[in-house]
Protein 1
Amino acid sequence: MESMCGGVPIISWPFFANQQTNCRYQCNEWGVGMEIDTDVRCDAVANLIMELMEGENEKVMKKKAQEWREKAVKATKPGGSSHDNFDALIRDVLAPSRHGHNFDAYLF
């Protein structure tokens, strides 16, 4: 996510947890990255880097990454979806409940 928020294309090497899902979206759905093959070799990684920086898809991936960056910036500004959702989370967790629950006991 940091790469996309920075507007930078990604080289992914998924290993565990949500990395496979993130890689699939970055490479196949969003078009902002390339995946390292499971047989990782120095020359293969170097070729991917060159393709990402100077290859035929380089401009397309950079443009898409920049578009995602702009969406991330917009979402985190006041009035943006991430900003509003975070505010709602804080209100729901920290604000006194209408049902008399005291959530202060759960805060460390």
Protein 2
Amino acid sequence: MISYILWDVNPEIFTIPEIMGIGPLPIRWYGLLFAAGFLIGQQIMIHVFKKENKPLEDIDSLTLYMVISTVLGARFGHYLFYQPEVLFKNPLEVIIPPYAGLASHGAIIGIITGLYLYSRSRKDKGQTFFWVADRIVIVVALAGAFIRFGNLMNSEIVGRPTDLPWGFIFMKNLEFAQIPRHAAQLYESLSCFVLFWILLALWNKYKAATPRGLLVGIFFIWIFTLRFFYEFLKENQEAFEANYLLNMGQILSIPAVLLGVYFVARARRQPKITAS
């Protein structure tokens, strides 16, 4: 007996009707989950700042840097890695809504840039780049879980065909609605959620004693190693990837994993961790 999961979820929660010539405005699960990642992440960072005696007035600035750098990085990365011809013809596409194309590798580059800009004026407050980065990856992992679940709600970034009993038939995605497929978005969402709890537990155990770069390194190794292998279960996002032995997501994940290994090795050479 063949079994599968029929996924027929409406990506829109509700629609705000037209008001004074503006609208109608659909409210989608993806946007709600994307925003929830920042809102919940901000509360987690408030907890971190309180526990490590950092100034709470910096939270709003950190949140603003994260929002801007994440969105711009994800948009720029999408066009740079997947549609460079659009980027070079019309660079304003990066900042003009709707934000239909977002690349996670670009988001990471954007976040790193944003954290560098944020931390360089706050070193005297003990908020060095690695101090901030080691803590921000906790909430980035949680946000990643929300965003990938948002992809599931959108029936996008679907997996390859499968005869496994948990295969999804994505009814809203007319291009891939015929047969059961891997719910690759759900695999990645659950992986990010597990990583969130691992990083949170490590920080909660060691707090200020955590070696610089350790949590960042674990984040990079976990996320991008799994991303490399999950890509074998996913349909290519762009047609040109069919000509490559590895797709773009896998190619970009390799240096990210190596960078993570470097960060962990660097952290291990620091004084031994002592629990607080």
Protein 3
Amino acid sequence: MELEHKFSSFDAVVSVTDDLVIEGYASRFGDADQGGDTVQPGAYAASLASGRGVKMLWQHDVTQPIGVWDDLREDTHGLWVKGRLLDGVARAKEAAALIRAGAIDGLSIGYRTRRAVKNAGGGRTLMELELWEVSLVTFPMLPSARVAAKGDAPDADWRDLAAVFRDARLEMAGLRPGPNPLSER
């Protein structure tokens, strides 16, 4: 069987904490990706229960692990991941800088399909997947699967999330100046 990849992009302003922790949804249930595939709830259950480690890679390159996933779990929305970029890995430091700058905004899963059905209109419904890795990537395929901004975690205080959207709305309306990229030169 061939290893497949699904790309996801960040859906919020992305932050990386000083200790290089990243978190977000690597996959969202029921959302069709650009290839027309959707993942069903429970698709990752057997793989996660197996205890086999899921790798954190840079751009699906097996020669470039950049961190570790400390928490992978299914919830009602999808596959939630939380991990650490490793400070002693040069590419991980670069990845953190790129995330902070907004240059990298995608997650992608690498997996083998164990059980799926073809949909009449194209694409597949993925019912069981063997998850191998979750990568930070440049070009995402599933727009709704994202690395979360601080406060977007499933257990986060929704008031913090509302504040993020309020601030973004004010900035877009020109009522609040955004960061000046020239001021850091």
